[in-house]
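(Fold this chain)
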Amino acid sequence: MGHEDDNHWCDLGFAEPAVVYKGPTQNARVLSEGWVAAQVFCPGCGADRLDALPNNAPVADFACPACAEEYELKAGKGAPGRKIVNGAFGTMTARLAARNNPNLLVMGYDGAAGRVTDLIVVPRHFFTPAIIEPRKPLGPLARRAGWQGCNILIGQVPLAGRIPLIRDSVHRPRADVMAQWRATLFLRETSQTARGWLLAVMGVVEAIGRPEFSLAEVYAQETRLAALYPGNNNVRPKIRQQLQVLRDRGWLAFNGRGRYRRTD
């Protein structure tokens, strides 16, 4: 993708069985990371490449040499699902709570053909502790007794925060990727609590399934939002407040008479 005129830019450069390391998981990791370093531009600033970070970097694999955005890569066979198995729960939550939490790259590949079929980026203002699901700790007889892993609930991220770079083996123009990235940068200026409400309302708006919608249609999801924030007894005023913020930030347009339109 750093070389968009190359007809073979999706190629991982291998077809199974390729052997770099004995373990297939480690083999796939090395190959997918090598592909990202060679092909992927920075969605944040458009720089032509991402630099690999040292192997011991916590919850980050790449950094942009131009803007310093950091990226964590998760790769697997087939299109990405709604849940991604991840590493240690404590390490992940601590890293995401930090000011320089990473963006998330999610890759799907066809191992037999040796090609990347899907690649999305989740900007770090969407990659938050709220989408991390702890797994059950390992039992006392396990080699790593007490160790606790986690899952990334990628399906809970609003579509605005799942930006496709590659979809069904077709790459997306760099300008389109960067425009979608910029459209939600205002979320970085909000606190985690305020951001949680904005993301929840964005998800409700997207679930309506049409660019134009009414305030009443958002109100219809009041029960869902109340369940997310049981301590808030003024859900409808909160909904109106979030819609106003999204309108002021350009993510929505107000058409009058209680009707809105998504601008994305």
User: Anything to note?
Assistant: DSSP finds seven helices and 13 strands in the chain. The longest strand covers residues 70-77. The longest helix spans residues 192-208.
